[in-house]
Amino acid sequence: MQRLFSSIYKEFLVLIRDRAGLAILFIMPLVLILIMTLIQDASFRSVKEVNIAMILVNNDNDSLGQAITEGLYESEFFQIVEKIDGKKITEIQAKELVATGDYKIGIIIPERATDAIRGNVNALINKSFKSFKVPGVKKRTRKSTIDVTIYIDPATSQSFKNSVMSSLKEFTSQLEIEMFFKNFSEALAQLMPDQKPIKFESFETIKYEEVYASTTQDEIMPNSVQHNVPAWTMFAMFFIVLPLAGNIIKERDDGSAFRLKTMPGSFVTIMFSKIFVFLGVAFLQFILMLLVGVYIMPLMGLPQLEIGPHKIALGVMAIASGLAATGYGVALGTIATTHEQAATFGAVSIIIFAALGGIWVPVYVMPHTIRIISQFSPLHWGLNGFYDIFLRGGDLVVVLAETAKLLLFFVFMLLIAIVYNNYNKTK
Amino acid sequence: MQEKEHIIEIKYLTKFYKGSSVPAIDNISLNINKGEIYGLLGPNGAGKTTTISILCGLFGPTSGNVFIDGMEYQNSSDKIKNIIGVVPQEIALYPSLTARENLNFFGHMYGLKGKELKNRIQECLELFGLEKNANRRIKTFSGGMKRRINIIAGILHKPKIIYLDEPTVGVDVQSRNVILEHLKKINEEGTTIIYTSHYMEEAENFCSRVAIIDKGKVLTEGKPKDLINSKEEYTDLESIFLNITGRALRDE
Q1: Domains of chain A: residue spans and CATH
Q2: B44-70: per-residue pLDDT in tens?
Q3: Residues of chain A positioned with their CB less than 8 A from the CB of B163
Q4: A261 touches chain B (CB under 8 A)
Q5: By the number of CB atoms within 10 A of the CB, which of A391, A413, A418, B14 ranks highest?
Q6: What value of ipTM does the predicted structure carry?
Q7: Cα separation of A105 and A274, whole Å?
């Protein structure tokens, strides 16, 4: 025990005397979490909050143009730009402005677009009242569809494109229905003059209520902070692998490891002292990042992190994640022969683990094979556990499976390090 | 009776590293007596480090046996490690820690504690003239001071056997004298010293017996004076060394 305590104290001294290294250990994760949350905040906000500028060229000057224009203004999703320097934007200008990236989207409503819809509606009514002679309704055949051109910046996200398209389709179909109903009722009135004209009324029969599923009654609003703080905390905690592996390699390079191997006591004692100290660092990183989420992020215009009521579960998850990270660091430091090997392999493998774990792209949108592989990423287990707590209100029981996987990963990594160390003795 | 005086017995020791068809040490047998300063000399790649590594218990031999104070590593690893002290060629210390913090740590690893450890650290620091610098960080020390602390870290627990790998490499004459003088004192108190060096003059004056090894084999062994007197053309240990190992340059 004396050897373990003394070794822990030595590791602690070595750590705190390296001021620059210490600053990197704590400041870099905080910078990472702040920048990533700020960047990703927009993608978690609704389109309405983001209020993206959009060019509108309305050449129709009739009902369709008017409906789309009003709809876009009323939706408040977009900042509509119809004129530049007091002059109405032309289609050519609109295309150029989108092509240069000044605007993300440009909508061109062609001339006589309403006439085209009207013609289609009349054709449909004529077809319906084929056997009756309805005066006033011109006989027209169904025209081909009209083209509302939408210029899109290639860098525009698919989700934003989808929002615009569905908004436009909604405005157009609303107009088509209204027009059809109006013309239909006029036609009907001519056939039955005694009948009172029917007024078009729009009413929502089916309403959509958005409720976030949670295992508890606590309502936690999913937002950029609730998503990003656990994700990037997990990512940053795993980066402790690099200084820990570096510490082991440095000890080997400067001969201290050689000296320690000639002393009584085991390799495991030495490694546990490192794990203990670096686990403490990982836990402190975690606490700091939570504090940033709770107190600093709101000052930067971001939502506040809601920790939820299950603080013990949170602590257990943090320790399990920290152990998984330190275990990985010990294995890497034992196997890698140079700092360069450890730094390159360590950093790239963490990024791969993070990508597979769903830090950037949710796992459910990944291809089937990758989804299966992602089940073996410790960052996936950690992230899932934190999401269970932060977003689904999960308690200790809920995160038990993830905790167990992280602890098993830690034990597995430690075994690899021990086996490799013993193998080296027989070389 | 003769057997009892041997603190280290090396019997038919052979070591092949994995993937190598050439042995690093080839059927070596040596006996080192209690209280000796035994020099293990040889050019680069001769097998000195491999021999010392096996004697320190870093790894085992391919064949043969090593007895340290009558014990073998296979069944008494920690007991052996408690009676040996190793001073590596590298400055195997933590540069950001003070001399005292380093010695405290290594002392604890040897199982020393409390007042015993404190007194022993003070005694060693005084012996090597470093008591005034005890609370300075190692990274601020000169090369000679680092070497002295490096030695203290290996002798704190008063080991029966000390392995010294090039203990005076890269230090000035004054530091070298201090180091060798104090090592002699420690030896006079009964500690056996196994010593490797490339400084033949130093080895000649310092060692009670030497073995010159090359290509994994012991080429000659004996007291430096006896070896020098064994042939007329030998004037000193260096002339013997060059004569039996050759003048060709050696790479590791």
Answers
A1: 2-44+221-425 (no CATH), 51-191 (3.40.190)
A2: 888 888 899 999 888 889 999 999 998
A3: 262
A4: yes
A5: A413
A6: 0.86
A7: 55
